[in-house]
Amino acid sequence: MKSVCSILLALSSLYCISAGDKVTPIVLWHGMGDSCCFPFSLGSISDKLNETLGAYVYSIEIGPNVVEDVENGFFKHPDKQIEIACNKLSVEPALAGGFNAIGFSQGAQFLRGLIQRCTKVKVKNLISLGGQHQGVYGLPRCDGISSSLCDFMRKLLNHAAYTEVAQKILAQATYWHDPLDEEAYRNGSTFLADINNERTINKDYVTRLQSLENFVMVKFENDSMVQPVESEWFGFYKPGQAKEVQSLEESDLYINDRLGLKQMKEESKLHFLQVEGDHLRFSWSWFEDNIVDKFLKN
Ligand SMILES: *[C@@H]1O[C@H](CO)[C@@H](O)[C@H](O)[C@H]1NC(C)=O
Ligand SMILES: *[C@@H]1O[C@H](CO)[C@@H](O)[C@H](O)[C@H]1NC(C)=O
Ligand SMILES: *[C@@H]1O[C@H](CO)[C@@H](O)[C@H](O)[C@H]1NC(C)=O
């Protein structure tokens, strides 16, 4: 398309603009404690993507305003959030031809859930920035403004993550992964164990995930929020203990290809990138070189 475009450009620049490459639109899904549109976080990423790529950017908002959007990141079940996002995205005319998706932290596993479940959208590339594809075991230190909420969450998750009530009220409980009791996780996690095909193999999940052109997982080398950080590359603790970690390739999920990831790796669709720094800390120039130029330009 590019070379056709440059020939056309020589003939008529006007024609080229109307018939030339259209940048694939981009959908963003924010992380916990964040919202679709804060100017200091996703708002600025969205502007930069617009400026540098000329891409149409849609940032998912769960709820009627940013306050509820932030709250829903804690208190609305991911199943429900995905359903809402699925309905919103599918009626957006600019996204009808497909889009690239960028998930921030928990927004990354929610986007993967969306890809696996929502038949009404077509996603080309999934970029996961610090997403927790094997869940988390442990919460970051509690300080700052939301420390009472954090303390409440920590207690609930440490002692009762897999109870019906915790699964219902706290989104983070649905991707809590206790390596000391994998069976309790498989039985009790109402979101992650489902989208990871831990209980049964949902063939549609495999097919839809494999319809991606690329699944890019970015790990933050000095992440102090996500335990264990290997979850950002789909790895986790070896079952039965919480010290030693294993990579995706060493896990049963991969070896038995329950989710189709082994085949995706063989087709070179999986990309494991790492960047120095704490959770979601990256420079725009890193992002441009490693993500924008490689995955968002077609
Ligand atoms: C980029 O941002 C400008 C200014 O807000 C807006 O007018 C334009 O429609 C945006 N471009 C796309 C492709 O959405
Ligand atoms: C998991 O579910 C199975 C089948 O319902 C049950 O037999 C088993 O006791 C459960 N295990 C745990 C740890 O909850
Ligand atoms: C981040 O982690 C890497 C790998 O563990 C280490 O080499 C590097 O020194 C760390 N950087 C900072 C700023 O802590």
TrEMBL record:
One of its GO terms (cellular component) is lysosome. This is Palmitoyl-protein thioesterase 1. Keywords: Disulfide bond, Glycoprotein, Hydrolase, Signal. Residues 1-20 form the signal peptide. It catalyses: S-hexadecanoyl-L-cysteinyl-[protein] + H2O = L-cysteinyl-[protein] + hexadecanoate + H(+). InterPro entries: AB_hydrolase_fold, Palm_thioest. Belongs to the palmitoyl-protein thioesterase family. The keyword Cytoplasm does not apply. Its EC number is 3.1.2.22. One of its GO terms (biological process) is receptor-mediated endocytosis. PANTHER family: PALMITOYL-PROTEIN THIOESTERASE 1 (PTHR11247:SF8), PALMITOYL-PROTEIN THIOESTERASE/DOLICHYLDIPHOSPHATASE 1 (PTHR11247). It comes from Phyllotreta striolata (Striped flea beetle). It is an enzyme of class 3 (hydrolase). GO terms for molecular function: palmitoyl-(protein) hydrolase activity.
